[in-house]
Write a structure and sequence with these properties.
- This protein has 167 residues and is α+β, with helices and mostly antiparallel strands.
- 17% of the residues lie in helices and 38% in strands.
- The chain contains 2 helices and 10 strands.
- It has helices at 101-119, 128-136, and strands at 15-24, 29-37, 40-45, 54-58, 64-65, 68-75, 80-85, 91-96, 138-142, 148-153.
- Strands 1, 2, 3, 4, 5, 6, 7, 8, 9 and 10 form a 10-stranded antiparallel sheet that branches.
- Zinc ion is lined by residues 143, 145-146, 148, 160, 162-163, 165.
Length: 167
């Protein structure tokens, strides 16, 4: 079993993004690969690492505070870190290739938007077209202040719930 492939995909799951990454745990940092699918964030460590070699988190297990999804992207001169909090209060952090930053941000926004749209509660008496219209008004933007992902609604001013910046 190679760490570079995902063999346990769910029936309607697809890989949106993958790249080499380091998983920062309290004990050490493990090298491996990070995958983003339309359902999960998955990390597979090189077999050479000690201890746990597999991590997964479903996107709808990520903690949401009002309009803000607690996935944060932070970059510095050499690296780019993706971290997030789960509804159980766990925090996880992965360092990925800095050159892939924009693509990661784009793909995370896409995955988050997808999750938000499918969890959106729209009145069931609305027609399919009306439901689609409501869903298409929702967007996800990466906050330039703190790097969190913020849900926005077309035509309405949006504030990042985490750092207060106007999006
Ligand atoms: Zn913010």
């Amino acid at each position: 079993m190679s760490f570079t492939d995902l063999e346990n995909l769910l029936p309607d799951e697809e890989i949106l993004m993958e790249g080499f990454a380091n998983w920062n745990t309290t004990l050490n940092s493990k090298g491996g690969k990070l995958f983003l699918t339309n359902k999960r964030i998955i990390f597979k460590a090189h077999l050479i690492n000690f201890g746990k070699k597999y991590f997964e988190c479903y996107l709808d297990e990520i903690y949401v505070e009002k309009n803000t999804i607690t996935i944060f992207v932070v970059s510095n001169l050499v690296s780019f870190t993706i971290s997030f909090r789960t509804k159980n209060g766990e925090e996880h952090s992965f360092v990925v290739t800095r050159g892939d930053k924009d693509l990661w941000v784009f793909k995370i926004s896409e995955a988050v938007l997808n999750t938000v749209q499918s969890n959106l509660s729209v009145p069931s008496e609305l027609s399919e077209t009306e439901k689609q219209e409501i869903k298409s008004n929702v967007g996800v933007v990466c906050c330039g202040g703190c790097g969190a992902f913020v849900v926005s609604v077309a035509g309405q001013p949006t504030k990042c719930n985490y750092c207060g910046r106007l999006i």
